[in-house]
Amino acid sequence: MTARLPRSLPLGRSPTLATDRLKLHALRDDDAERIAALANDWDIARRMTRFPYPYGIEDARFYLREVAPHEVAWGITSADDGSLFGVAGLVPHDPDNAIELGYWLGRPAWGSGIATEAAEAIVRFAFAELDLPALTSGCFVDNVPSYRVLTKLGFAEVGRSERACLAEGRALPFIDMTLEAGTRRPA
Questions:
Q1: Closest by CA position to 31, among listed 53, 63, 70
Q2: Which burial class, exposed, middle or buried, applies to 114 when counting CB atoms under 10 A from its CB (0-12, 13-18, 19+)?
Q3: Mean pLDDT, to the nearest integer, of 141-158?
Q4: CB 23 within 8 A of CB 78
Q5: Sheet holding 156-165: strands in order across?
Q6: Exposed end of the chain (fewer CB within 10 Å): N or C?
Q7: Confidence (pLDDT) at 161
Q8: Is residue 44 packed enough to be buried (19+ CB in 10 Å), middle (13-18) or exposed (0-12)?
Q9: Rounded-to-integer distance, Cα 74 and Cα 4, Å
Q10: pLDDT band at 98 (very low <50, low <70, confident <90, very high)
Q11: Rounded-to-integer distance, Cα 53 and Cα 97, Å
């Protein structure tokens, strides 16, 4: 099932979401330095479709100014001290009318369950507040941690494709996944 872009999709106006450990806030200009510092990591860039490498402050500013306003994007931060761990969002894909869940974390947050916790909050928002019938997502075949996050949330593999990886400068094998409303499992 393909999700239709809802009129209520708050592009560029992400509401604050909260979990026990996290606060997901609408991205701000002052997030640029921390985004650049975290994203300038080969092991992150090679697992993302649209990250350049190296990733500098101008790349972060471009993302915040030109890309994020066309998505529902959040900074993933600590509920305790507000430190930024990474970015997550819902990305509209107009050619197939799908809404795709995407996320990345800086290396210091890897293995902590933060990606699963943030993604679960966004999935709940997408189904409960936006009334989406389904979400898509996926990862490059070598991104085992991301695959685990998605399967914990109930995403199921629906096929394989190739997606461009900007950092690698070539297309790489990709696992396409979907999650229909009502089939998700709590993480």
A1: 63
A2: buried
A3: 97
A4: yes
A5: 17-18, 22-26, 72-78, 84-93, 98-105, 134-140, 170-180, 156-165
A6: N
A7: 96
A8: buried
A9: 21
A10: confident
A11: 29
Q: Which residue blocks in the chain are alpha helix, DSSP H?
A: 32-39, 42-45, 57-62, 114-128, 144-152
Q: Exposed, middle or buried: residue 151 (CB in 10 Å: 0-12, 13-18, 19+)?
A: middle
SS3 107: helix
Helix (H/G/I), strand (E/B), else coil: 156: strand
Between strands 17-18 and 98-105, the pairing is unpaired
Q: Collapsing DSSP states into helix, strand and coil, what is residue 47?
A: coil
Closest CA to 76 of 32, 1, 23: 23
- Which residue has tokens 């872009």? 5
Residue type, 20: D
Half-sphere exposure of 126 (CA within 13 A, CB side): 32
**Is residue 103 a contact partner of residue 76, using CB atoms and an 8 Å limit?**
yes
Both tokens assigned to 130: 């936006």
Six-digit token string for 77: 């931060």
Write down the number of H helices and E strands in the chain: 5, 8
Residue 2 has a pLDDT of 45
Q: Could you tell me the pTM of the whole model?
A: 0.93
In tens, the pLDDT along 127-147 reads: 999 989 999 999 999 999 999
Q: Where do we find the tokens 């070598």?
A: 142
